[in-house]
């Protein structure tokens, strides 16, 4: 059950959604697209338990858990801090306070200035890994 919850965490993450969007030509999500998306190693028990616990917190109604959940999934993917910050810029409808909190909680880093965020938006994403 924990691995299923960990998969749920991954598939509901920004990191997963960015990959899906990069593969789509239309708004229709096919099974072929989902199969092509990279999933982090879910055989690592520590990773699975961490992601599973964040899913439980989100399902219990903890509104703050979604921020830490995104950071945990990004770490499971092995996404570098700068790349994670870049991924956040591709979701302009995310509430700015949530983006700021994700940026500061991600890997203990400092929040990006608006100028730095604008510069990151110009970087191409060739992969999720640094």
Radius of gyration: 15 Å
Helix percent band:
55-70%
- DSSP summary: helix tally: 8
Number of domains: 1
Fraction in beta strands: under 5%
Q: What characteristic shape results from the CA principal axes?
A: globular
Estimate the mean pLDDT confidence: 77
Order of helices and strands: HHHHHHHH
Number of strands: 0
Distance between the termini: 31 Å
Please give the oligomerization state of what you see.
single chain
What's the gist of this structure?
By secondary structure, the protein is mostly helical. The chain is 62% helix and 0% strand. It has one domain (2-121).
Describe it for me?
By secondary structure, the protein is mainly alpha-helical. It has one domain (2-121). It is built from eight helices and no strands. Helix 1 (2-11) crosses helix 4 (45-59) and helix 5 (65-77) crosses helix 7. The longest helix is centred in the middle third of the chain and has 15 residues, at 45-59. The N and C termini lie far apart (31 Å). Mean pLDDT is 77; it is low at 110-130.
List keywords for this structure.
globular, disordered C terminus, mainly alpha, 0% strand, 8 helices, 130 residues
Give the topology, please:
Elements: H1 2-11, H2 14-23, H3 31-36, H4 45-59, H5 65-77, H6 81-88, H7 96-105, H8 114-121
Helix pairs in contact: 1-4, 4-5, 5-7
């Amino acid at each position: 059950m924990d691995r299923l919850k960990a998969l749920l965490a991954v598939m509901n993450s920004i990191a997963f959604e960015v990959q899906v969007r990069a593969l789509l030509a239309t708004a229709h999500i096919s099974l072929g697209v989902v199969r092509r998306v990279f999933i982090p190693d879910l055989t690592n028990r520590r990773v699975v338990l961490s992601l599973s616990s964040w899913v439980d917190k989100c399902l219990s109604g903890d509104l703050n858990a979604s921020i830490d959940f995104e950071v945990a999934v990004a770490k499971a993917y092995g996404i570098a801090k700068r790349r994670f910050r870049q991924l956040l810029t591709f979701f302009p409808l995310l509430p700015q306070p949530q983006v700021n909190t994700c940026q500061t909680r991600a890997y203990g880093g400092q929040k990006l200035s608006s100028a730095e965020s604008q510069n990151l938006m110009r970087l191409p994403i060739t992969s999720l890994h640094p």
